[in-house]
Design brief:
24% strand; alpha/beta; 42% helix; 212 residues; single chain; Rossmann fold
């Protein structure tokens, strides 16, 4: 298998030795600033119930658990390796029941309707099987007044990377700022607001929308 194809597949769904030893650490480095930006925008309260879609090895889960005391944190990820690593990283919070981590897809979130006050994802929307349908599943599990924070890099920045440009069958969903904003608005979110931070080589973007 060509190396860039292997890398692309690992970024979508870390697995095996590569996923266990390298991909999680790599994702922490690349996603860390976006996660920290999201944590600030979330304005978490101790009683909130939070969902993270695609939690990697649980870096942000750990940080949110420091704030959420009376509420709960749920995470879903399609990678068995990442679920295992995140459970180890958050062992005490998982044992107490405050954190629940599932191997699951955004296409079928294991939660009841109107469960969460905050939903966050970083750099996963490229891989969603059907964003138009999947975002309705996100809406389903959100409370009225809850906010969704979709973190990503924009299409122009993504296509500067060979691993992305040469593997569009894996990086299927790339968006301009107008397109990702429109995705949330068309789904029914209100007060949709983009937040953009320019980094050295690219922009970190989080589009925030509120469920009516």
């Amino acid at each position: 298998m060509r190396m860039k194809k292997l890398i692309a597949r690992q970024l979508r769904k870390p697995s095996g030795i590569a996923g266990r030893w390298f991909v999680g650490k790599s994702l922490n480095k690349s996603n860390g600033p976006l996660e920290d930006m999201g944590l600030e925008l979330m304005q978490l309260q101790p009683e909130h119930h939070v969902l993270e879609v695609g939690f990697g090895n649980g870096r942000l889960i750990s940080r949110m658990a420091e704030v959420v005391k009376e509420g709960s944190i749920t995470g879903i990820d399609i990678s068995r390796v990442m679920v295992s690593q995140a459970k180890k990283k958050n062992r005490d919070a998982v044992r107490s029941g405050k954190v629940k981590l599932h191997r699951a897809s955004v296409a079928d979130i294991p939660a009841a309707e109107a469960t969460f006050d905050r939903v966050f994802t970083a750099n996963t929307v490229y891989f969603w099987p059907d964003p138009t349908t999947n975002i309705q599943e996100v809406l389903r599990v959100m409370n009225s007044g809850a906010i969704f924070l979709c973190g990503l890099r924009l299409k122009g920045d993504m296509l500067q990377m060979d691993v992305v440009a040469e593997n569009r069958d894996i990086f299927q969903n790339l968006y301009t700022l107008d397109e990702i904003t429109s995705l949330l608005e068309s789904a029914g979110f209100v007060k949709v607001t983009p937040h953009v931070v320019q980094r050295k080589y690219f922009s970190d973007v989080i589009v925030v929308g509120t469920k009516p």
